[in-house]
């Protein structure tokens, strides 16, 4: 069974949902295609469907680029219209094009854009250390499988989907997720990350300098970039969701990242509230969270982002890949020892 951060006694603030996953936001579904073949293929696709496979109803959305050495397609239209009208897909850097095209094909076959057009949201991080990224191994059928296989419930973490060949803070990482309940209102915020960022000495877990403690005497692989997807059922409008997307920055910073020059740190947030707003005619009547209540959503985003990143690392396993490259998993026992040293274990 894949371990998660809380299984090691790592403490986190806030109250998670039942699954502690982005799928705690009702309607959200996640699908993954994981490609591990031979010695060179270590990649895949992750799909996040805001209203699940059953509905193509657009959702209000906003996005933010903390450092732009990366790609997230479709964001110009989100800025213009305020709607996300596709799944969010995450893959490796050189597969963005094929994933984007396949997403349009999938939507067209379903009748979602039968007489129209689509500008899918596809994001990436670089897995060229463990994966033969110029082998172009992601194909349309892999995108279809991730989309058709999307489900609610527990979300696989670590070496899966688009996160298969990714690493963070010099250790194996990949896909991670977490959620928080805004207790006062019963809203939920869920986060999913594809973590491939950060220098080895920077890593902090529960405030402890884990990276500095583990970096002594070892040469760790370089890592760069993170994609963060934030979902909520709170009724937020596009300008508010851009504000939420920006707050993922603080959760990332809690884990030690400085968003280096070579990093693509790009975040998107969407709300599943206000169903039908995109199709309403002639006037859409929508709800929005008041400004004096939105800080609770900011806090939930920060907390869930931090835990999702740590989950991505704790769940990941040591991987050997392209040209014999090996990326080690973060050693669980040493993490526990370090947290104990700094008085940061939840049970102590």
Structure in words:
With 348 residues, this protein is of the alpha+beta class. It has one domain: L-amino peptidase D-ALA esterase/amidase, CATH 3.60.70.12. 25% of the residues lie in helices and 23% in strands. It has seven helices and 14 strands. The strands form four sheets. Strands 4-3-12-11-10-9 form a six-stranded mixed sheet. A four-stranded mixed sheet has the order 1-2-5-6, covered by helices on one side. Strand 1 and strand 2 form a beta hairpin. Helix 2 packs across helix 3 and helix 5 packs across helix 6. It is globular, with a radius of gyration of 19 Å.
Helix content: 10-25%
Strand content: 15-25%
Instruction: State the strand order across the main sheet.
Output: 4-3-12-11-10-9
CATH level-4 homologous superfamily: L-amino peptidase D-ALA esterase/amidase
| Unreliable parts | none
Shape: globular
Report the order of strands and helices: EEEHEEHEHEEEEHEHEHEEH
Condensed summary:
The chain has helices spanning 75-81, 96-110, 140-148, 210-215, 238-254, 294-315, 332-341, and strands spanning 29-37, 41-49, 59-68, 83-84, 88-92, 121-125, 167-168, 171-172, 174-182, 187-195, 226-232, 264-271, 319-320, 326-327. It is 25% helix and 23% strand.
Tag the structure with descriptive keywords:
single chain; about 350 residues; alpha+beta; L-amino peptidase D-ALA esterase/amidase; six-stranded mixed β-sheet; four-stranded mixed β-sheet; about 25% helix; about 25% strand; globular
């Amino acid at each position: 069974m894949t371990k998660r951060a809380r299984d090691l006694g790592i403490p986190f603030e806030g109250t998670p949902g039942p699954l502690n996953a982005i799928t705690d936001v009702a309607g959200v579904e996640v699908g993954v295609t994981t490609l591990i073949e031979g010695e060179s293929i270590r990649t895949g696709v992750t799909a996040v469907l805001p209203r699940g496979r059953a509905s193509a109803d657009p959702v209000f959305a906003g996005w933010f680029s903390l450092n732009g050495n990366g790609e997230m397609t479709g964001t110009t239209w989100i800025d213009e219209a305020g709607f996300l009208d596709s799944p969010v897909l995450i893959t490796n850097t050189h597969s963005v094009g094929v994933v984007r095209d396949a997403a349009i094909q999938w939507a067209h076959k379903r009748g979602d854009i039968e007489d129209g057009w689509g500008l899918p949201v596809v994001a990436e991080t670089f897995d060229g250390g463990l994966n033969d990224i110029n082998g172009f191994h992601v194909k349309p059928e892999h995108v279809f499988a991730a989309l058709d296989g999307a489900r609610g419930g527990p979300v696989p973490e670590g070496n899966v989907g688009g996160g298969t060949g990714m690493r963070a803070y010099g250790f194996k990482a990949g896909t991670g997720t977490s959620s928080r309940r805004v207790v006062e209102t019963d809203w939920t915020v869920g986060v999913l990350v594809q973590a491939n960022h950060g220098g080895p000495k920077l890593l902090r877990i529960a405030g402890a300098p884990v990276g500095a403690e583990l970096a002594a005497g070892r040469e760790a692989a370089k890592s760069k970039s993170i994609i963060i997807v934030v979902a909520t059922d709170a009724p937020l409008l596009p300008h508010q969701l851009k504000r939420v997307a920006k707050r993922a920055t603080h959760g990332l910073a809690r884990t030690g990242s400085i968003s280096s020059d070579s990093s693509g740190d790009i975040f998107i947030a969407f709300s599943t509230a206000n169903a039908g707003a995109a199709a309403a005619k002639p006037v859409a009547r929508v709800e929005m969270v008041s400004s004096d209540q939105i800080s609770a959503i900011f806090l939930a985003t920060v907390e869930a982002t931090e835990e999702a990143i740590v989950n991505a690392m704790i769940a990941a396993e040591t991987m050997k890949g392209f040209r014999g490259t090996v990326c080690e998993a973060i050693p669980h026992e040493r993490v526990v020892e370090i947290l104990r040293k700094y008085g940061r274990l939840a049970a102590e």
